[in-house]
Amino acid sequence: MSMVEDAKATVQGALQTVMKTAVALAPDNWIPGGIPDPIMRQQHGSIGKALSRIDGPLKVGGTAPFAAEFALEGMVYAAVAFSTIAKGRIATIDTAAAEASPGVVLVMTYKNAPRMEKVPLFGSSPKAAGGADLTIMQDPSVHWNGQPIAVVLAETQEQADHAKTLIHVTYDEDPATLSFADAKAAGTDQGMFMGEPLHAEIGKAEEALAAAPHKVDAAYLTPRHNHNAIELHAATIAWDGDALRVHDASQLVAHTAWSLSKVFGIAEDQVRVSSPFVGGGFGGKCLWDHQVLGAAAAKLAGRPVRIMLSREGVYRVVGGRTLTEQRVAIGADASGKFTALIHTGITAMTSHNAMPEPFILPTMSVYGADSFLLDVRVTHIDMLANTFMRAPGESVGTFALESAVDELAAAMGIDPIELKLINEPDKDPLMGLPFSQRDVEKAYRDGAERFGWTDRPKTPGSRREGEWLIGMGVATATYPYHRMSGGAARITLTRDGHATVDIAAHEMGMGTATAHTQVTADRLGLPIEQVVFRYGDTIFPGVVLAGGSQQTASIGASVIEAHKALVTELLKLAGNDSPLAGLKPDEVGCFDAGLAALEDDGRHESYASILSRAQRDELVVEAAAPPPLELQHWSMHSHGAVFVEARVNAVTGEVRVPRMLGSFDCGRILNPKTGRSQFRGGMIMGLGLALMEETEFDERNGRIMNPSLSDYHVPVHLDVPEIDVIWTDIPDPHSPMGARGIGEIGITGVAAAVANAVFNATGKRVRDLPITLDKLL
Amino acid sequence: MTPFTYARAADAATAVSGAGANAKYLGGGTNLVDLMRETIERPEALVDVTGLAQAIEARADGSLLIGAAVKNTALAEDRTVRRDFPLIARAILAGASGQIRNMATVGGNILQRTRCAYFYDNEGSRCNKRQPGQGCDALDGFNRNHAILGTSHACIATHPSDMCIALVAHDAIVHLEGRAGKRTIPLTDLHRLPEGHPEIETMLEPGELITAIEVPALGFGRRAIYRKVRDRSSYAFALVSVAAALDIEDGRVRDVRLALGGVGTKPWRAWQSEAALRGAPATEVSFRRAAEAELANAKGYRENGFKIELAKRMIVAALQELAA
């Protein structure tokens, strides 16, 4: 990462700030009675400053190496052929012409692939990373339309791509379940998520609904979505004897290394996976068939392999978000208090994965109600395994929930913001736990004022400029705080006062390395120029998934523990000749490149002085984060209020969104610049979810028919308006740094806010996404 | 991509004589190269004609002669085009992206092929255009972007060009050079309806090359509308587009040009609408009647039936705006 150091020196606006007071050690954990992380209220350090990304110059200059840019000696290029049937077996596969094609090194099929175990299915053990519980290229069976059936290795990518087209395959087809209607008719099962049934009941919700004086009860549909990170999925892979080296585009390097070791029957420490830069993750940059096939082909060829999926290949091999059919019913009393909150429905998955889209998650904590009925049923389709995609559950669940709340507000003649606040719970509505920090009302009030909510047309369809009908909508954004077990970090402190943090975390473009350089600098009382944050490599400690918006908390808790170990060791080294003599770790803080007594910052000794006297060039400590006990004591959720102005063309039905605002309550924001970008990125993805994204899955043969960025629509620049983002910046006293991750929340609530604005503009309620113009004609 | 030879033609005559049976003329390559990557097109030879006629000639009679190798961007930015033929400039700018328009040629734009997903899916889908007699998976499949006019049991694919909609409205004439010599053909007659043979898309003879496009003068074309409706603000093909120019005298329609994109299996000149409009009062009632006349024979499929109403509304709105 020395290039990061180099780049950092040139970062525009690099902050020279150092802490003005000593920062004490953070608590062991965040259980009741514990003290909050002292850094969370720190106002004078790097945290909270709009530092530009430390990797910015590398990316602008084209020198940040991505997975498909590592050139290895003797490397060959892979092209993948995909099945064209949904279910059955390969009857014949003729690779002779491909093998004879210029530059071809080999063609791998189930007939000659190395023997491999299944990739352990994600969730089946702590480091399992597999998207599907299937062997890869071990037999002639076909489980989805688009499954890899052959890999061509050639001296150039073009030669491999051409040879792939010369492979001839015939199939014996089996009957497949491809339509959602057929799948539902075949029956549904209870959806299970993280080992728990997606089901909750409090009271008798159906009876309460029936008895309620005010109610809504409607069905909402959301389609399949595919991952479209700009960086294509890729890996550059080499074997050295039994040691496997993978340059990956990954949001879970430790999981990938462990899982690949199981696939190839080698020790975990024989696999090294690194991923210095990732061009977008969103839940899609995990372990799919291509890394396994690349490693298998490299083994077969005895040469390093670069495997980069084509855009079509990403659609064929990497799962996306599955479709949902949701019912939301709300009963309310005369004052608007919810007496019944029902959110149920069906989602499709496969028989070989474990990822029902958990769309009821937002309804488990956003509102209070006298009774609840929440349930996710699953049905099975013969398709590529669906997977996580930004805010799994909440992104599409908030569309249904927040549309329904808006419908109820309209039916009752109440401002939707007031209806939401009337039903703001004072404790977790299902678990009964206190909230760790929840300032939803402030987010709403601040957002409403800044957006000009009072100017919303009171009557739907009443405001028009020329052909354009104008409306405003609002919806709640929400995503939980997560912190998974497994976090660990190493700190190396050198005599010249430089610190390096090593942790197997991930930088996918959201600013992780920048924000944690800031945090570490503040914690250690160093200027950021003297801190290097190294990540994205299994040679570093920690099992840190960059998912579930948990990475920030996981890194934070890991660095806190390492920091504690560092201070303990420094005090030992300081010994009796130091001004710090006799002080215990919790009696000192880091300040001005050294340690100081909390009670008397005159008692200070620099790191350089301590290490010099101890005749040490450096001090290395490593520690693991404690288990996430905070989640057992508090209900921890982030929230936001999303405001949207929509314009709907009365002639053509076209929808334009000229204005959006997100007002978030997500704890302390570590870096407003990268944070704002992350919120905005999520909101843009939400705009795509609302207006255009839809995977065209042909139910006749299970084939995805729009596997390209020209046919699968995501917003273009012209679709994206100025997006205003504000936040409460109120720290969560029960999380590291007072922060909660913000990776997912931006996408949530947006689709409902758009749908609600479209309703306000036109009087038409669209309950199936995307909101395309034909639905408004 | 199947291996091929590449040669750059110095002029039309050598291009034509140098193009063998399995050769293709290469313009900007923005569509052909895509199709080659997908192995839908597998020419053995490419004859690069981007070095040929690149002039936009404003002739004394007010007409234009546009070299086939003129880039889309150059045509859209040309002063005479913008002043006297604004439909052409606006239609071009409504299509593709800046980068693609910088590469794409006028001749290539006319001969671009449909973006039907089933046509593109060489390995996994049936397509009569790609493989005559194979069947058409678009008929009952994803056909939101497909045609409602000029369709057949064999094919419902749209011609995707925006520029061609403006050109057919302008009665453009295509200049050709082939092994048998030179000839011209009206653009409205260049593309064929699919009927039973969607694989035969144009009236071009084998080896025939588009050398230029002639656009006759049209006085009332200075005030014209190209309106395109699609599923996002930019970089998407038309669901429906309307090219319109209207000549009104004493409250009656003296002349009119109307063409539709996104709805036809070929660039669609709305002859029925025009016939209904000529001589009729310039009122919403007439406009609506004209729209109904053109769409009377439209046929909606699984996903695109909405285009019938949308096209009618857009025709009426465009004419009303021009009449205002």
Identify the notable features of this structure and list them briefly.
heterodimer, A: 777 residues, alpha+beta, Aldehyde Oxidoreductase, domain 4, 3 domains, six-stranded mixed beta sheet, 33 strands, 24% strand, disordered N terminus, B: 324 residues, Uridine Diphospho-n-acetylenolpyruvylglucosamine Reductase, domain 2, Enolase-like, domain 1, four-stranded antiparallel beta sheet, 20% strand, globular
Q: Strands, helices and their partners?
A:
The complex is a heterodimer of chains A (777) and B (324).
Chain A: H1 2-10, E1 23-24, H2 56-60, E2 76-82, E3 88-94, H3 96-100, E4 104-108, E5 141-142, E6 148-154, H4 157-164, E7 168-173, H5 180-185, E8 189-190, E9 192-193, E10 196-197, E11 199-202, H6 205-211, E12 214-222, E13 234-240, E14 243-248, H7 253-264, E15 271-274, H8 289-301, E16 305-308, H9 311-317, E17 324-332, E18 338-349, E19 372-380, H10 394-412, H11 416-422, H12 440-451, E20 464-465, E21 468-480, E22 488-494, E23 499-502, H13 512-524, E24 531-534, H14 551-574, E25 588-591, E26 594-597, E27 604-606, H15 607-613, E28 618-624, H16 630-633, E29 637-649, E30 655-665, H17 672-691, E31 697-698, E32 703-704, E33 722-727, H18 750-762
Parallel strand pairs in A: 2-16, 14-15, 18-19, 23-24, 30-33
Antiparallel strand pairs in A: 1-25, 2-6, 3-5, 3-7, 4-6, 8-19, 9-10, 11-19, 12-17, 13-14, 13-16, 17-18, 20-21, 21-29, 22-23, 22-28, 25-26, 26-27, 29-30, 31-32
Helix pairs in contact in A: 10-18, 13-14, 14-15, 17-18
Chain B: E1 5-8, H1 12-18, E2 23-26, H2 32-37, E3 45-48, E4 56-58, E5 64-67, H3 72-77, H4 79-84, H5 86-93, H6 98-103, H7 106-110, H8 117-120, H9 163-169, E6 173-178, E7 181-186, H10 187-190, E8 209-215, E9 224-229, E10 240-249, E11 252-261, E12 268-269, H11 271-277, H12 284-295, H13 306-323
Parallel strand pairs in B: 1-3, 2-3
Antiparallel strand pairs in B: 4-5, 5-8, 6-7, 6-8, 9-10, 10-11, 11-12
